[in-house]
């Protein structure tokens, strides 16, 4: 898809900068410019498309839709809505309160909270740019599965008493859902493209910069030995280290791309990214305001275990994806 861009960047590095792309420096520079341009193009297209869809699902409508589903159907619907509904760690508390107030089952609520940060339009766009459609689609499906199964397990444990009592007592007024024209939705999508790129460009450049250094200078044999798919503990270590960290998925994907090119297992790199995104420390701190420690521990344990399984799954099928 981006063969033309690869050629133009290589031409720029070799002819304008007079640096061979076969050298470590040239390889790093090529990686940086190629990935930056490629990711921004795909980011703009994907954010616009999914933001247009997202305009049909504001939080108020999402809540109303989920009120109509129960059981595993509710978990599946919550995970699917999590893909196209805006979510970040700062919105976890109001969304959680809104769902609890609407009497949406706890397990269904957590299906949404797990899936939404893992699978979003920006991360999906960069996954396509970095790894192609196959890996991006499998990542999308596994992200949904993690959300569904995680929510089902949490729901089965009957931990409603682990939610702070005041949450059940909150009563908010009914919010009217704004009716938008196609022009309004297109403008909303365009504004979202500008806003997201404005917020994440620094994460992108830092991530791509680190990825470029890894691509040009990291010792491939050493990384393959200790973090390759043949190391049975690599995925577990990646998730354990990722859980307490806060990292933007948009910045970690280029790093994952560079690590994978050096022999690190696909599942190892992606499971680290999932852990830092779905189980970030800021989100846990915010959720502590509405749920008790026991439920947070259950949430982290179940989601972390599911992500580990996803990591091993990706490593097992890597030869079909690359």
TrEMBL record:
Its main location: membrane. Keywords: Cell membrane, Membrane, Transmembrane, Transmembrane helix. The keyword Ligase does not apply. It is found in: Cell membrane. Pfam families: ArsP_1 (PF03773). One of its GO terms (cellular component) is plasma membrane. The chain crosses the membrane at residues 31-53, 74-100, 106-129, 136-157, 200-220, 232-253, 259-281, 293-314. It is a multi-pass membrane protein. It comes from the Bacteria. PANTHER family: PERMEASE RV2963-RELATED. Belongs to the UPF0718 family. This is Permease. It comes from Desulfuribacillus stibiiarsenatis.
């Amino acid at each position: 898809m981006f063969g033309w861009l690869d050629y133009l960047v290589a031409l720029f590095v070799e002819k304008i900068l007079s640096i061979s792309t076969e050298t470590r420096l040239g390889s790093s520079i090529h990686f940086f410019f190629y990935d930056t341009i490629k990711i921004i193009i795909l980011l703009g297209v994907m954010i616009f498309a999914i933001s247009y869809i997202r305009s049909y699902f504001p939080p108020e409508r999402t809540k109303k839709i989920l009120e109509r589903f129960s059981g595993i159907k509710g978990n599946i619907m919550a995970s699917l809505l999590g893909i196209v509904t805006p979510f970040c760690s700062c919105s976890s508390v109001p969304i959680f309160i809104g769902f609890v107030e609407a009497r949406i089952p706890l397990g269904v609520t957590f299906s949404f909270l797990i899936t939404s940060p893992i699978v979003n339009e920006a991360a999906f766009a960069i996954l396509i740019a970095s790894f192609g459609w196959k890996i991006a689609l499998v990542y999308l499906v596994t992200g949904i599965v993690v959300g569904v199964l995680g929510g089902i397990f949490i729901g089965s444990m009957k931990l409603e008493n682990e939610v702070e009592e005041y949450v059940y007592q909150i009563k908010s007024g009914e919010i009217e859902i704004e009716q938008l024209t196609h022009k309004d939705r297109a403008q909303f999508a365009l504004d979202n493209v500008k806003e997201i790129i404005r917020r994440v460009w620094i994460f992108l450049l830092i991530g791509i910069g680190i990825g470029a250094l890894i691509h040009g200078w990291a010792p491939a044999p050493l990384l393959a030995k200790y973090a390759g798919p043949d190391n049975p503990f690599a995925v577990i270590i990646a998730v354990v280290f990722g859980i307490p960290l806060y990292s933007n998925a948009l910045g970690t994907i280029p790093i994952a791309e560079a690590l994978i090119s050096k022999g690190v297992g696909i599942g190892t790199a992606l499971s680290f990214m999932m852990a830092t995104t779905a189980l970030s420390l800021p989100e846990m701190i915010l959720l502590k305001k509405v749920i008790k420690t026991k439920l947070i521990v259950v949430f982290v344990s179940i989601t972390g275990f599911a992500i580990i399984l996803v990591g091993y799954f990706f490593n097992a099928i890597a030869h079909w994806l690359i």
